Every structure is written in structure tokens, then in C-alpha cells.
Amino acid sequence: MASRDLCIPLRKKHGRLASCRSIPILVDADHKSERLGDLPKLADYVVCSTKFPQAWTEAPSIPSALVSMLLRLPNIKFAVVTLGQEGCIMLERSVNVHGRLIVGTAEKIPPLELLDTTGAGDAFIGAVLYVVAICTNMPAEKMLPFAAQVAAGCCRGFGARTGLPYHTDSRLTSFLS
């Protein structure tokens, strides 16, 4: 058995353990795969690439795919679709019948500051995870621009980590105060 084939059962096992202990689970879904299996059903949050929601749900548009995801995955609190330099779209589940569709804009980076986009999506997801795990009172309207700012910082350096901002970065101060 290849090591990558072993990872999926371990993820599911760890997902079940985390779920039983009320530890929040965020699934980063990049593309439709049978290997993803039932992992999204254990998730509290889903952040996915542009193509994943429609491929996974077979819905005709991203917003309708987000609705389908919330209907299929009753445990998730929100699903975010990243759109690269176009920003993101998030559907947040409400306690009543209605949900909230929130559009997040991407941080515009001046051409001379844009060095490398490697890792920007992972930086965005990391910032979302930071908010749901540590800054639990931050509203979605603040979380999405915060995550966009972290991703933009990543693009201002070479490689996936050199541009990542520290929590003391002046661009993040308004989000973290």
C-alpha cells in the first residue's frame, strides 16, 4: 500500500476522533476525488478551490453549488470558494432557514510588489483556520479580508513562506485589535 493510500483512512480516523472531541475540522478541498470520501461529512468548515463545488455537487453555478454543499453537509458552518485574484465567495449557515452569501474581495497588489503567488491559497486557508480556531469572535465580514490580506502578504515574497506576514504586521493590525 502506497503511503498516500494510507493517508486517507488515517485522515478519516483522525476526523472521527476530532469530531467526537468537538475539535473543529476544516477540509481543504482542491478537486473532486473518490479519495476524499466521507471526510467532508465530518467537517465544520470547508474551503475549496474554484472548480471543486460544481464538480462535487454537479450544480450549474458556484452559488447553487454552495447551497447544495450546505444541504449535503449538515455539520458545516460555512463553505468558502477561493477565486484567486478575484477574491472568494462564502455561504454561511444561519440558525434559521436563511444563510448569508458573502463576497470577499482579493487584496490588490501593485505589480512591482507581486513576486510569487506560490502558497497564497494555503496562506488564505491558514488565516481562515486561525480565525475559526483562535479568533472565534471575528465575524465573516472581517475574516475574509483578513485572510485575503495574509494571502496577499504571501505574494509579496518568493516561495510559500517568505512573504507571510507576522501578526504584528501593520496590514493586519485593524483585523486583530
Automatic annotation (TrEMBL):
InterPro entries: Carboh/pur_kinase_PfkB_CS (IPR002173), Ketohexokinase-related (IPR052562), PfkB_dom (IPR011611), Ribokinase-like (IPR029056). Pfam families: PfkB (PF00294). One of its GO terms (molecular function) is kinase activity. Coiled coil: none annotated. Keywords: Kinase, Transferase. Residues 23-165 form the Carbohydrate kinase PfkB domain. PANTHER family: KETOHEXOKINASE, PHOSPHOTRANSFERASE SYSTEM TRANSPORT PROTEIN. This is Carbohydrate kinase PfkB domain-containing protein. It comes from Ziziphus jujuba var. spinosa. The lineage of its organism: Eukaryota, Viridiplantae, Streptophyta, Embryophyta, Tracheophyta.
